[in-house]
Amino acid sequence: MLRTGNKLQCSRFILAVGHNAASFLSAYVLASANWDAVGRAVAWNERSRSATGQSSEESACVFYRHKDDLSVLICHVTCYIAEDQLFQWTEKVFDCLQSRELTVTVLSDRSVADYKTAEYLSSSSAPFLRSLHSSAFSDQPVCQSLEQPNIITGLPAAVLNHCQVNRIAAVVYHCYNDVSCPDSVTVETYRPVLSKLGRSIQADCSPSADVLRRFVRSAEIQSNLYI
Predict the structure, then answer these.
(1) What is the pTM of this model?
(2) Which UniProt keywords apply (predicted)?
(3) Which of 103, 114, 149, 176 is most solvent-facing, going by the fewest CB within 10 Å?
């Protein structure tokens, strides 16, 4: 589906980086019957070579396409992408997408221990969202901007940098949390983003506890493979 030089008509690209973000989209968006898994991208590195017993979904970046609106694409990235692969991964994926009128939304998370603030941050403050966007992004983010001197790193940073350079509207929603494994509280922190994902995306704003637990438990099992 994604081939270099073959520009895919895409108006909205939603990228979930990490198990909490992927679990959020799985429970709130992809649980409906409106999506097809249409492609995978594998990043070969020291972790992917050493990991055993993983399914293709666990060892690859999985792409989903909306059945009724083919211009809406979701990508789950729960596998490890090495630092020296970030630029190449970003370039190859975006080389397959038309950039005109494209809006990119990135969901990611990080430990609250990495959050820098002059004020006291109690344990009850986490999880919480912060946003960072490209200059071409004109919409209003659902949370306050990431304060200096905090930065984003990894794949979210690579994607945002690519969008900034190429004048693509993009926003990163970064969830700071205090847990080492996926959990329902952190997953639900992304809920305000649902209102910004586009009209064609029919999200389940209140998935049942069983549905939420199922995706979180599955993600927890997968994340343990990388410990």
Answers:
(1) 0.86
(2) Chaperone
(3) 149
